[in-house]
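Appendix B. Chain record.
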Amino acid sequence: MIIDAVKKSHVPVEYVVFADEGHGFSKKKNQAEANAKIFQFQDKYLMPVGSAMRK
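Structure tokens predicted for this chain:
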């Protein structure tokens, strides 16, 4: 329901499901992948345009 509400508000959203996990992460590999995706999303949508931090 949250994902649908965010999409209806025209806010960028990326939803990733790890089939071998429950709520949260128990596997380091999945945690690392999720963190990488979070950082990519933040860089894409939250980093100011023209920032020296952008690649």
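Further analysis of this model is presented in Appendix C.
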